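My current task is to audit a protein record that another person submitted. Please read both lines and tell me whether the C-alpha cells look consistent with the sequence. Do not assume that whoever made the record got everything right. I have pasted the whole thing underneath without changing anything:

===
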Amino acid sequence: MRAGLAALLVTLIALAHFGPRAPTSTSTSTSTSTSTSTSTSTSTSTSTFTPSQLRLTGRITGETLTETESCAGCHPDAAAQWQSSAHAFASFNNPVYRLGVDRFRTTVGRDASRFCGGCHDVALLVDGAMAGDVKPDDPRGHGGVTCRVCHGIESERPDGNGSYTLSSSPVPVPRDGDDESLRAHKARMALPPLRTAAMCGSCHRSFLSQETGNTAHLAGQDELGAWQRSAYAGSVSSRIDETISPSGCRDCHMPLEEASRGDAAAKAGKIHSHRFAGGQTWLASMHGDGAQLEAERAMLQGAASIDIAAAVGPDGTRTLPADGAPVKAGEPLLLDVVVRNERVGHRFPGGVVDAQDTWIEVEVHDARGRRLAQSGLAHERTANDTTAHVLRVLQVDETGTPLLLRETDRFRSPAYNHTVAPRDAELVRYRFDVPRGVDARALPMRVTARLRHRSRNLALAKAACLESKTGRGAAFTREVTVLTGARLDPCAEEPVTEVATTETWIGDGANAVACANALPPWRRLYGHALGLLHALQENVDEARPSLEKARVLAPPGDERTSAMLVGAMAEVAIREGRTEEALGLLDEADTFAPGHPAIARARGRALGNVWRWADAANALEQAASASPLDDALWGQLATARGAAGEAAAALAAAVHGLRLAPRDADALRVQALALEGLDVDRDEIARAREAFERWRPPDDAPAIKSACGARFPACSVERVPVHVHPLMPD
C-alpha cells in the first residue's frame, strides 16, 4: 500500500501540467474497495456497428429512417428547413463528405467506414449496407441525419463517434381530436436526450484510433468538450469574465424562425429552426438556397471580433491601443492583431477544423489612399499566401507533411491549433516596414484588419469539384435532383463571409480621425492580454503593460471589470512562476468578485507550481464544485489530490472527469496510479493501465511536429503561439 502511494506521488508530480484534452470512448464501471466507480474499459464495442459507437434497441430499417414525408405532412416548415440543412446533406449526397468517405473505404476498408456511418450514414449502417458498394441511386445514401435519427435517440454517452442509442419503437400517429394520441406522439418523438447538448455531442465529438487506420488515438472535433468547459455551460472557472448567459446548442443553431406553412409545432407563429445553421456556406451555395446561405452567414458575422490592439516601435515603445502610434520612415513597426471568440460556445472556427478556412487580412494605406503593404490578400484566390494567418488545426502525416484533403487515416499529429476557445483570444503580430520615402503627406496611415471565412479550404473544394465530374460523382449529383428536385452544383464558387473588420489610424494626424472600433479601450487591451497569455513563457510579461493601462482606462467603480483585469494580471504571474505575486493579486481580485471560482482555480494552479499540493487541491476542489462539467479542471484536481497522497480523492476526481471525457489520457493515467495506491484488485489495475496505454498521446507526436517545422518554413512559424507575419510592400 505504501509503495503504491509513493509511486503515485512521484509520478503525479510529473503530471502537474496538462496537455490537450482527448475526446472519449465507451467506458464501463467497476467497483473498487473504496466503493468509487472507475472508468477502465477500453475495448471497442463488439456490435456490428463498430468502430461507430452507435447502439440500437431492437431492429429498424434504413427505409424507415429515410422516410420523412409523413413528418412533413404535419411539420412542413421544419421539413423544408431541414431539406436545406447540412443534416439533410450529411451522407453520400454531400460531395465533400463523399470524397473523403469513398477514399477512406478504399484505403482502410468498408467495414472501418462504419466509423463515419454512425453519424453520417445511419440508414446505411443499420441495414449493414456500409459493407457493400453504396450506389448513387440508393436512397439510403441520400438520407443524412433524418427526423427519426435525432427524434429517435433514447440515450447518449459522452464518447463521440455516434455514441447514442437509437430506439426502434414505432412512432404513434396522432389523430385529429384525439389528445391522448397526440400526447403519445410527443412523448415518443421528444425523448429525454432531445434538446440537450449531450445528444448533439454524441456526434459533434470524434476521435481516431487503430480501428480507423491510425497508429494511435487522436482527437477530432470536440464541440461538446469545448462547450462544457465554457461559461455557456455554466463552467466559469477559466477566467473572470463579463456576465455570460448560459446557452446550449439549440439556442444558437435552432433559433426561432417564422412558420409560414402551418407547422403543427408552431407557437405564436414560430418554430425552432431546423436549418441547423453554422458555417456551411458552401453547401448552401451548391444548391442555390439563398435563405440557407443568409442563415449561415448570420451565424458567422460577429461570431468573433478583430482588433488592432497595440503597436510596438523599434525601441520597444508601446502604443496601447494602437490608435495614433508614431510612424517613422524607414523603421519597422509591430502591429498586434487580436481575434476574440465573442459568442461561439465552442472553438472558433468549429466543425472539422483541419478543413475550415478562416483567415486574417491586413492592409496599410497612406493618407492619399495608396496601399503601402498587405498580408493575406492572396489567400482568397490561391490559399497559398504564406503571409496569411489561418485559424485552423494543421494535421500532418508521419513525415510532418500537411494534410488538407481530409485523409483522416493518414493523420498522425496536429502540428498546431489556431482555433480560439470560447471567450478566449488569439494574437498575431504583423511587421510593417515603413517605406523610406514616406513624408508628411502620407500621414496619417489607415490600417485595416479583416477576419474572413469560407467553409472549406480551396484544395479540398477543388478535389470535391473534380470528383463530382467522374461517372460516380455525376450520378450522385443527378440523383440529388431526382430525389429532392434541387439542382446541386459541387463546383459552385465558395462564398466568403466577412466575420469582422476593424481599422485604426497611425502616424501624425491620426488623432483627428475617428477609428472604427466600438469596443472601449480597456476591453481592447484586455483582449490583447488574453492573447499574450498564450505566448511562450519568456514573452508573457508583455501582457503587463496592457493590463496596467486597461486598469487606468476601466470605468471607475466597476468591480467586475477590476476583477477581470486583476485576475488576468495574476495569470501573468502564474505563467512566470511568480507565486507570491500571483497569490496577492488573487486576494485583490477576491475583493472585487468574492468567491469567484476562477480565483480558486488560479490559486490552485499557482500553489501547484510550487508543489503545495494539499493547498492546491483544496482550492481546485472549490473551483470544480462550481464547474461540474469542466473535465480539464477535474483532471487538474485529480492530479493535485494524487500528488498530495490522497489516492481515494484523486480517484474520485479522475472518475468524475472520465464521465465527461472518457478518453482523457491525463485522467486515465491518474485513475491507474490512484488504483495502484489504493492496492485494489490487480486485474482492475491492469485494466486501468491498459486504458491509459490505449488512449494516451502518441510518443512520436513531438518528433512529427518538429519535422513539420524543419521541412516547411510556414509550419515552423505557425508552431510559435504568438508569431510575426510580414506585411508585404506593394
User: Anything to note?
Assistant: The chain is about 40% helix and 15% strand. Residues 1-46 have pLDDT under 50 and may be disordered. The radius of gyration is 27 Å.
